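Example 311.
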Amino acid sequence: MNEIDFSNPPRRKFPLSIIDAHVHLTDSKSADLLVEIAQLYGMKRMIAVSSPEETSPLRQRHGDFLHFALWPDYSQLNNAAALREKNVPVMERQRANGAVAMKFWFKPEFNYKQGLYLDDERLRPIFEGMAELKLAALVHIADPDIWFQRCYSDKRKFLSKRDNYRQLTGALAAYPGINFVAAHFGGNPEELPHLAELLARFSNLYLDTSATKWVARELSAKRDEARQFIVEHAERIIFGTDLVTYHGGDQAYFASRYYVQQKLWEGSEDFISPIDDADAARPVTVRGMDLPEEVLRKIYYDNAMKVYRLT
Ligand SMILES: [Zn+2]
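Predicted structure in complex with zinc ion:
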């Protein structure tokens, strides 16, 4: 990290409300610090991935600043009635406590180890409950291209990166009434034409901007193409950071993600990213996109309100 004073955020280009629609909060001191820094950077709300036991204490302290995406309970996968019983009543109770989504962390290693893919028919009771309760699905599919070379080179176990998307397209087709938000630019900021094709095929698909380091690196490398993609798909992109409080966390870690995304979406200059990036061969130059106000308003606020049905 270099010498940026994160306690003093840069001026916003426009006075817009912002929702961070993807963080991970545990009920902890770090969660309080993250909320404080998010508010310093202009966040008006957050959608936090949390477990059902954590939502009440978090809401007691932070009120309806927080909404939640819950982890499903997969323990009864082979018994549809029991799986429904494990999940749907919890979803129903938590809906009243601010739950707006379920989180599916379907990375290649999860798929392989659990033998479970997003379009698995065994998940139907969960998705049907979500459709009834109007909960969205926040999903993680695939991982950076470079990880497929380094960690997932065994295609029999982990499939090719492209084949990881069959589970997403299967679920999008099976549950047209559910809004799916594919995190981290759909897991494929490397290949925007692929994302454009998916967005054109499935009107229930949205992307979030979370995983700042990865997204800023890939989009900056093709700044003009990325800017055009974002302007064209402004209705389908949702701001988020994916900041996590599991391992504690400090001001520099929390604030750096807000800082970099602010400068990436609003700024007009290039700068060296203050985030260390083990996946990059050299320090990453972030290239400001200078997005127009109506695009920022959708990405920062309107789309999250609509897709997660916030009130
Ligand atoms: Zn996440």
